[in-house]
Amino acid sequence: VDVGCNIGQSSMLMLIGTENRLVCVDPNPRALSYCAENLIYNGLATQVHFVNAFVGEEEGKKIEFFTIGVGAAGSMFSGFAKSASLQKKSISVTTRRLDSICKQINFAPDLIKIDVEGAE
Length: 120
Known about the structure:
Layout: E1 2-3, H1 9-15, E2 22-26, H2 29-41, E3 48-52, E4 54-55, E5 62-66, H3 82-86, E6 90-96, H4 98-104, E7 113-114
């Protein structure tokens, strides 16, 4: 599972030369679409399930997510996304529990990579 996949750089590295299955999760829909596009262009998207959500401890909670474009420093904490915070750029995102995502798609992860700008 790649939590905070952004545009898919780590996702691609986890998939190249393998038949691994992967779940890519990102709260930024623009970044997640770039991730999907990058994996499609590299023939890897058939191995991936994409989830547009913010992974958290509660299911279905709305939070403010500070981000600009596909910015890699998007965060629920304005201090971790300084440019977005200064420009007052944020989106409302829904939280999902990682266990419920995996249960919904019948996926048992061997590895969970988390890069979520201060919300680890």
